[in-house]
Design goal:
By secondary structure, the chain is of the alpha+beta class. It is built from 24 helices and 26 strands. Among the domains are: 197 residues, no CATH class; 300 residues, 3-Layer(aba) Sandwich (Collagenase (Catalytic Domain)), CATH 3.40.390. The longest helix has 22 residues.
Length: 816
């Protein structure tokens, strides 16, 4: 997924920055060559594969076939094992294309860049080559020539034992933890294994660190890294060019050889090589389903508990219906791996096998990274990381989102078939990532909220058109609605996206097929079922493309969701209790209730200052960016005022608190309210309100109107004369604190977009209207508080309001 985050081929695919480390020969190169049997002695332990790997004592030797010199290989560096706080197992650290090159009596390991290209038939190709010189990562003296004179032997021990930065911790991590040097005596090679198409190295690195994330008493960081060196295909796959209207993970290059008056960035899809067999071309052209030349096969890790294997397999093969839309049958299948007796050489580290890896880890997550050829986007291999504790996350979500209507979720432990169905759902989602699909957070808004209460509709269409949205479980459905569907399946959008990305367009080049791909998109233009909306990190600008939401109206959907939470809270003790157990489960599930309630508030509040984003090309009519309608923004703030800022008493349950905590109730509500308040009063959101009013006039929700509506909700007691209780006093102080922050807040620049993932709004605070509006708001609030003081007789309320006046005065008239 990443289920809590992120997705994942990485949320944005960054290009590695190569730091060569020590570019040196560990020994003199002249006169160093010896007869083969003097170097690879009888004591050598040899592993045959892409290279023959020989281990002699603590040294490792590569015997490189001469036929593989100048061939391109992809090196992927990942975390294999790590201490707490230093990433996670499987996390990618670096990636680069390498080339082994033989030069005189040395072997050079060079880094190849495909960031900048031009066809070799064009005159500009020479200029590109000259400006794209391949750096040397390491040099090795040739130790021996192979027995049959068709291979070359080098000692690679120092490549992995020394601090070659491109194969170790990336520069950003080194800076974060103040790494000064490699501790050579605490670093070593764990293993080197060779397979037919890849070589896998595991090595432990220990670094001296001034700010280690854990075990600080050691002053070091120790981490086990894996370096996968994969032979790239000799015949590159045909590319398919990217279009932002269909979500896809991509590779990219800057091409200087195109018919354009400037260099141009080109993006192409990361996808598996699915091709029609020559003998099936006529069948395919007639519209018959055909099996691809090579299927996508996922193996289930031997460590996976037996009772969950069938559900993970089902999640994988659920995608067959999407590939049928692309013209293929049996394109993706799941298998059990051979037993050690059947095939002692089989390994999940062999790049020929994609594996769902079951990891005994407390991480409550799963993710689906993949490795692709940077020249074409061809996915070469993918291992889905399945952490054991993902089940605890699934249980929490399914409980808090469905227990009000679903007896299967009303217990401390779910039945195996219930948990199995949840595992199948996550398996499908993660496989989608490995096929090339990112999160589609705009998918769930395609359905009217009321349709999610309809058993017939939900059973036919599930809860969203795409399983790649974070549309978890049906929190909208009410107890009286009957047998509604509770979770998403492979949907209309998924079938469309897979067809768009994988259906072969025979007889055409990548450039020639663009017109067909464009036509396939235009056939569904304007239909929300086929819309793609980017995952957003940072500022949520487009409220129709956000995580965890359902339906086309966040206000109505959240209203239904809160009704269900109010049904769950009185039953929490009963539904989480087991004889002989303490109340840790009650504590965890109450935490899920609070988090879910906060999600609903976030789903609604981001409509304030929101801008819808609809990807279009120039031949399509209408704007790409449309402000959220004024009335909807006003209703969103009204909803937050009523549901959150008016103290949510239903969430304050002394029966629960008496079992899970000695303090925390007041702080919990304070943080809920202040977090949403701060988001509403964020610089970016306020600046967008200013801009939309400037551009659209009275049809837009003005910042001054929003500030007044917010003040009237947060400080409603000033008009009524009611006493101000504890939770509201905290909220009102939070409001003043936020206004104080805005008076001195630094300007913010527009952040990098990272391929569309990150949204942000530039604000120059000293010259924006924000400070002027805030100053006026403080004065209006000061006047309202002075009037309110005369309406209340409650002593603590008076003390609070007098303190508020002092705070405002300190902000407006700071001491020099």
């Amino acid at each position: 997924m990443v289920l809590t985050c992120s997705s994942t081929k990485e949320a944005s695919k960054s290009k590695a920055t190569v730091s060569s480390g020590p570019v040196s020969s560990p020994e003199k190169s002249n006169g160093d060559m010896k007869p083969y049997d003097k170097v690879i002695t009888g004591s050598a332990k040899t592993d045959e594969g892409l290279f023959a790997v020989h281990k002699i004592d603590e040294d490792y030797f590569y015997e490189i076939p001469d036929s593989l010199f100048e061939r391109e290989m992809l090196m992927v560096t990942r975390i294999a094992k790590t201490a707490s706080g230093l990433g996670f197992g499987g996390g990618k650290q670096n990636e680069q294309v390498l080339r082994w090159q033989k030069r005189d009596n040395k072997v050079l390991l060079r880094v190849v860049s495909y960031n900048v290209v031009a066809a070799d038939s064009l005159p500009v190709h020479e200029a590109v080559v000259n400006s794209n010189f391949e750096p040397i990562l390491y040099t090795f003296p040739i130790k021996a020539i192979g027995k049959d004179s068709t291979s070359t032997v080098i000692n690679v021990t120092d490549l992995f034992n020394k601090d070659v930065k491109a194969l170790g911790l990336p520069e950003g991590t080194r800076k974060r933890y103040k790494v000064s040097r490699l501790e050579g005596d605490k670093s070593f090679i764990e293993s080197v294994k060779s397979y037919p198409q890849n070589v896998e190295v595991r090595h432990v690195k220990t670094y001296n660190a001034g700010n280690p994330p854990s075990n600080s008493s050691t002053g070091t960081i120790s981490i086990e890294l894996s370096n996968s060196m994969i032979l790239l295909p000799e015949i590159p796959m045909k590319r398919r060019y990217f279009d932002e209207r269909v979500g896809w993970f991509t590779s990219s290059q800057t091409d200087y050889g195109l018919e354009a008056q400037r260099s141009k960035d080109v993006e192409f899809l990361d996808r598996w090589r699915l091709e029609v067999k020559d003998e099936d071309i006529e069948k395919f052209n007639r519209g018959e389903l055909v099996e691809p030349k090579k299927q996508i096969v996922y193996y289930i890790d031997r460590a996976t508990p037996e009772k969950w294997r069938k559900y993970i397999k089902q999640g994988i093969e659920d995608w067959q219906v999407a590939f049928e839309a692309a013209g293929f049958k049996n394109a993706i299948i799941a298998k059990d791996p051979p037993t050690p007796e059947e095939d002692p050489e089989w390994s999940p580290e062999d790049v020929r096998y994609s594996v769902v890896r079951y990891l005994a880890s407390p991480i409550p997550n799963a993710n689906g990274p993949h490795v692709s050829d940077p020249r074409t986007g061809e996915i070469l291999e993918s291992d889905i990381n399945w952490y054991h504790n993902v089940m605890s996350l699934l249980r929490g979500w399914f409980f808090v989102q469905t227990a009000a209507i679903n007896p299967d979720a009303q217990s401390p432990e779910f039945k195996d078939e219930v948990m199995g169905r949840l595992i199948r759902f996550v398996s499908s989602h993660e496989v989608g990532h490995t096929l090339g699909l990112p999160h589609n957070w705009a998918s769930s808004v395609a359905y009217p909220v009321e349709k999610l209460r309809d058993p017939e509709f939900t059973k036919k269409y599930s809860t969203a058109p795409s399983i790649m949205d974070y549309a978890r479980f049906n929190y909208v459905a009410q107890p009286e609605d009957g047998d509604v569907a509770l979770m998403p399946n492979i949907g209309i959008y998924d079938k469309y996206a897979i067809s768009w990305g994988y259906r072969p367009i025979l007889g055409k080049t990548a450039e020639e097929e663009k017109a067909t791909l464009d036509q396939w998109i235009l056939e569904h233009a304007g239909d929300p079922l086929y819309r793609f909306g980017h995952q957003q990190v940072g500022d949520i600008v487009d409220p129709s493309s956000q995580r965890e939401d359902l339906g086309d109206d966040a206000i109505l959907a959240s209203e239904y969701g809160i009704k269900n939470l109010k049904r769950i809270v009185p039953n929490l003790i009963k539904w989480t209790s087991e004889p002989g157990e303490n109340y840790s489960d009650l504590d965890e599930m109450y935490g899920h209730v609070v988090s879910q309630f906060k999600r609903y508030m976030g789903h609604v509040s981001v409509n304030i200052g929101g801008i819808y984003e609809y990807y279009k090309t120039s031949e399509q009519e209408g704007p790409v960016y449309i402000p959220v309608p004024k009335e909807h923004q006003k209703n969103a703030l009204k909803f937050v005022n009523e549901q959150l800022f008016a103290t949510p008493e239903w969430l304050i349950d002394t029966d629960i608190f008496g079992r899970i905590e000695y303090s925390g109730a007041v702080e919990r509500i304070r943080k809920l309210q202040s977090d949403i308040l701060d988001d509403i009063l964020s610089l970016g959101r306020m600046q967008r309100l200013i801009e939309t009013q400037t551009l659209y006039g009275n049809s837009a929700y003005a910042l001054t109107d929003m500030m007044k509506d917010l003040r009237n909700g947060v400080w409603s007691e000033l008009r009524s004369g009611k006493s101000i209780e504890t939770y509201r006093r905290n909220l009102q102080r939070a409001h003043i604190d936020r206004l104080a922050y805005l008076m001195t807040a630094d300007s913010q620049k527009k952040a990098p977009s990272f391929g569309g993932y990150q949204k942000s709004t530039a604000v120059t605070t000293s010259q924006s209207d924000i400070r002027a509006v805030v100053r006026a708001e403080l004065k209006s609030l000061e006047s309202a508080i002075k009037s309110g003081l005369n309406r209340t007789s409650d002593q603590l309320s008076k003390i609070h309001l007098q303190d508020a006046l002092e705070r405002i005065d300190a902000i407006v008239n700071p001491q020099s």
